[in-house]
Amino acid sequence: MGMVFGKISVETPKYEVVQSSPDYEIRKYSPSVAAEVTYDPSQFKGDKDGGFMVLANYIGALGNPQNAKPEKIAMTAPVITKSPGDESEKIAMTAPVVTKGDKSMVTMQFLLPAKYKKAEEAPKPVDERVVIREEGERKYGVVTFGGVATEEVVADKVEKLKKSLERDGHKVIGDFLLARYNPPWTLPPFRTNEVMIPVE
Q1: Domain range spanning residue 149?
Q2: If we measure between CA atoms, which residue out of 94, 106, 173 comes closest to residue 141?
Q3: Which Pfam families has this protein been placed in (predicted)?
Q4: Which of 92, 141, 157, 169 counts the highest number of beta carbons within 10 A?
Q5: What is the full DSSP assignment across 62-130?
Q6: Does residue 153 sit within a domain?
């Protein structure tokens, strides 16, 4: 029931709030290990979240884990997505999946539980499309919002966050990520989403 009403009961990434303003937070995230998949959304009928099932199968979210051990890996939140293309292109995201890429390819990412400190500690994927990589310490300007993270809403949040960061003297050093903390069946008023922009 909690998932329908937005209760986040899974592990989330560790971070320290470096600065807080009425418009955003600057957060420093601890190093982590991620499972990611890069794909062409057209293979999934244009669905930018098409890689979700590939990653869910790797951790065993919906059955037997598709990794060499096989070891069931706990789901975490958020799913982070970085969309391909230029900065004007909109992005949608889930908990934690990260997506990034060129004009046609998308990368989606699940952050693995904190017990995995190095990439080699995570179970080896059976599906060669799944890549395990380490994320170093990183800093983001973050804005949190509820509801459905449509392309229009996300584009508006990104634009406002960028302007606020630049106004306050923060240097943007990359494309934004969309973090979605709840499954798709969570009622929209109870959803938690974040737009994250990397800063120096």
Answers
A1: 15-198
A2: 173
A3: SOUL
A4: 141
A5: TSS--BSS------BS-EEEE-SSSTTS-----TT-----SSS-EEEEEEPPTT--SGGGSPPBSSTTE
A6: yes
Total domains present in the chain: 1
Q: Does residue 6 form part of some domain?
A: no
Instruction: Indicate whether 80 belongs to any domain.
Output: yes
What whole-number distance in Å separates Cα of residue 26 and Cα of residue 118?
25
Amino acid residing at 32:
S
**Helix %, strand %, coil % of the chain (to 5):** 20, 30, 55
Backbone angles phi, psi at 41, to 5 degrees: -55, -25
CATH assignment of the domain containing 112: 3.20.80.10
The answer as to whether 28 is a domain residue is yes
